[in-house]
Amino acid sequence: MKKVFLLITVLSLLSACNDSDFDINRDPDNLDPNQVSLKTELPAGLVGVAGAQGAYYAIIGGFWSQYWTQSNAANQYKEVDDYSVGTDDYTGGWAAMYDALGDIRNVKRLANEQENWNYYLIATTMEVYSSQIMADFYDQIPYSEANNVNILTPHFQTGQDVYDIMVSDLKGALAKDLSTSSGDAPGNDDFVFGGNMDNWTAFANTLLLKLYIRQTEARPTVAQDGINELLSSGASFLDADAAITQFEDAPNRSNPLYETDRRQLNVATNIRASRTLHSFLTENSDQRKDNYYEAGNPLNQGDFNNTVGSSTISVVHLEATTPVYFMSREESLFLQAEALERYAGGTGAKAKYDAGVTESFNKYGLNGDSFVASGGAYEYPTSGNFNAKLKSIITQKWISGFPGNGFEMFFEHNRTGFPLESAVPQTSGSYVAGEFAYSATGTTGGLFPKRFVFPSTVTTRNPNTPALVLITVPVWWDVN
Which of 70, 95, 116, 161 is the most buried (most CB within 10 A)? Predict the structure, then answer.
């Protein structure tokens, strides 16, 4: 995504808000960072994060969570689909995310100076949210020294250290007394919740829950202690979508995944249905399939050298007005279900799971009640062991992340091993629907990707960049 698209989108959305406090004729990046208003810089940061996430990382995540695969009639994303990405690929994702973090961190700094705890909580939550994506993709990232105009070559910190600081930062922001917040209150400039601070508190709590959940295998004691503290404190968790919903079906105003893959490339068939998810939905007569994919047959993952006529291969369905979800209500429910199953004896886990599944159906105007009812395809395995329950939770989280949050499902697959990885190629009659299949054109000797590589723009400019490692090397929390 080009920065000009982000700016146009920011200005378009600000204009639509019709608030006299906004100056929509100036790029926040060109303003004095000490003088820019919180109401001007916050929306720039929010849309910047949505752009980085929704264009670059949504594309990568969709391939590596096997929502889609490269068309056999195009070439755009072959290096992602066959795991041959290098330092010159998708360099814009890193730049776009850190550009957005520059705005977010300046809002946080100014809000702290002004004792505006509302904006401080919003900015801290978005700082942690964005940094978690980067840490989970790249393992080591600049955090404490990032976006500091006085530090041109910030030091990188280990993923574990970043996690510890993110947890501390969230707790610090949550500890602020919002009733004593000074200065402006967020309103239309908050594209996510419109200034509803109860929702921001719940989002921050749920993000904290996610950080602990992500550490369950690598640091079980840290995860357990943190989650028990959240549960025993009665912390509120997200019960609404944390999302930007103001997109329009117009150039530079649409969902960034749609904008970049469909409108800017002017190719409507680059990404095709992966057999992995398509086959699972088909086997379970899941009506969401018709909202995910156009008519046609799926393509085996990575099988872009297949000579079968492309007109018979299903195209991924994308829409210009689809929201960008920072965290959906169903993701929150599935996180809570896993936490309750792990650390609360399972009490309430089924109810959270059922609600998460039905919420995902509701997004498309569908009723999922029969799927979670007794005998339904997605009935919660109440009498099963923990692994059976975790498999159900993660599988439904995987399905619900389509189309734009595949990167989170890629992370969850690496953490939990669910969906399972197929021992046979998808051409085999014994392939099990929904199991992850190694790319038919894979270049990594049968090993699945576990991370992304640092871009050349970073390795050549910052001597503190860690040595490059293969994309098949797990990040710190991935001990599966």
Answer: 70
Q: With both helix axes pointing from N to C terminus, report the angle between 159-174 and 197-213 in degrees, rounded to the nearest 10.
A: 150
Q: Which residues pair with 325 in a beta bridge?
A: 243
201-222: average pLDDT: 98
Nearest 10 degrees: CA dihedral of 401, 216, 127, 330? 30
Question: Span 139-162, mean pLDDT?
Answer: 97
Residue in 451, 387, 457, 404 with CA at minimum distance from that of residue 247: 404
Dist CA 274 CA 297 (whole Å): 9
**First vs last C-alpha separation in the chain:** 33
Q: What share of the chain is helix, strand, coil (3-state, %, to 5)?
A: 50, 5, 45
Q: Which of 62-66, 95-99, 248-252 has the lowest mean pLDDT?
A: 248-252
Task: Compute, in degrees rounded to 10, the torsion defined by CA atoms 254, 258, 263, 264.
Answer: 100
Q: What SS3 class is residue 299?
A: strand
Rounded Cα distance between 197 and 180, Å, is: 13
H and E: helices and strands count for the chain? 18, 4
For residue 299, which of 271, 318, 327, 322 has the smallest C-alpha distance?
271
Opening angle at CA 378, ends 377 and 382, nearest 5: 120
Confidence of residue 30 (pLDDT cuts 50, 70, 90): low
Phi and psi, residue 9, nearest 5°: -65, -45
Tell me the whole-structure pTM to 2 decimals. 0.94
Phi then psi dihedrals of residue 13, to 5 deg: -70, -40
* Parallel/antiparallel/unpaired status of strands 271-273 and 68-70: antiparallel
Question: Nearest 5 degrees, angle CA 390-CA 394-CA 398?
Answer: 170
The two tokens of residue 289 are 């399939």
Q: What is the DSSP string of 326-378?
A: EE-HHHHHHHHHHHHHHHSTTTTHHHHHHHHHHHHHHTTT---HHHHSTT-TT
> How many other C-beta atoms can be found within 10 angstroms of the C-beta atom of residue 73?
15
What type of residue sits at position 37?
Answer: S
Task: Assign 265 a pLDDT band (cuts: 50, 70, 90).
Answer: confident
What are 244's strand-pairing partners?
A: 324
- Do 413 and 398 contact (CB within 8 A), yes or no? yes
- Residue 310, CB-side half-sphere exposure with 13 Å CA sphere: 17
Q: At what angle do helices 3-17 and 91-114 cross, to 10 degrees?
A: 40
258-263 long-range contacts, Cβ below 8 Å, gap at least 24? 258/318, 258/319, 258/320, 258/322, 259/1, 259/5, 259/55, 259/320, 260/1, 260/55, 260/59, 261/59, 261/318, 262/318, 262/320, 263/320
pLDDT value of residue 13? 52
